[in-house]
Design a protein that fits this description.
CATH topology: Jelly Rolls
Number of strands: 9
Number of domains: 1
Helix content: 10-25%
Structural class: alpha+beta
Oligomer: single chain
Distance between the termini: 57 Å
CATH class: Mainly Beta
Shape: globular
Largest sheet: 9 strands, antiparallel
């Protein structure tokens, strides 16, 4: 049958996992500020052990910090949360909810990585890239996302993202990624002598009391 005889009725994105990519313009000044603040914080804190391996993970209080870089980036992150929410749910009523958010700084030296993980009990997760050095391995510092569906596919459609079992991306400084918190992911080892610095965050909605 010729496709010309079929009347399109729409293509529904069933069970898809959105990955939003933002690029902050003129990010150098903000990144320099964030790097300075990260150095100062690291000097005062041993950090936390989470998914980070051979790296430093700050406390989860990024949105409570008063440093200028934290305040500026925090606003960008919350704007991204609002924008992505409206993109997937245009009628979402923000007046009925408050946004709860947590954030932290990740610093990975040579060999440092983040092991596979997701972010339970949150709606959106994301990461802002402050410094992403080039490494000996082209995948150095890349982030990889895994398909959340449980069936194993032996057949596929070439180059179709909806059939892929994983997706790899090499971020750039000034880039902000956002994705559903259930999306499992990890970060390839840093193969550079320079440190890789990012700010990660989670967000969710809490209904306002009437």
């Amino acid at each position: 049958m010729s496709l010309s005889r079929l009347k399109p009725q729409g293509l529904h994105p069933l069970f898809f996992s959105p990955l939003a990519v933002f690029q902050l313009e003129n990010a150098d000044d903000l990144n320099d500020l964030l790097l300075e603040e990260a150095v100062n914080r690291r000097a005062d804190s041993p950090g936390l052990d989470r998914s980070n391996w051979q790296g430093w993970h700050s406390e989860d209080d990024f949105f409570q910090r008063e440093e200028p870089g934290c305040l500026r980036l925090g606003e960008y992150m919350l704007d991204a949360v609002r924008g992505c929410t409206l993109a997937v749910s245009p009628e979402f009523d923000f007046d009925r909810y408050t946004i709860q958010a947590e954030g932290w700084i990740n610093v990975l030296g040579r060999g440092g990585l983040n092991t596979p993980h997701d972010h339970p009990a949150w709606v959106w997760s994301g990461c802002y890239y402050v410094k992403v050095p080039e490494g000996e391995n082209p995948l150095s510092g890349s982030i990889e996302f895994f398909d959340t569906r449980t069936n194993v596919r032996t057949l596929t459609v070439d180059a179709a993202a909806c059939f892929a079992s994983k997706f790899v991306m090499k971020p750039k400084p000034g880039m902000l990624l956002m994705f559903p918190s259930y999306l499992r992911h990890w970060v390839y080892p840093n193969d550079s002598d320079e440190e890789r610095v990012t700010v990660a965050f989670n967000a969710r909605f809490v209904r306002r009391s009437s």
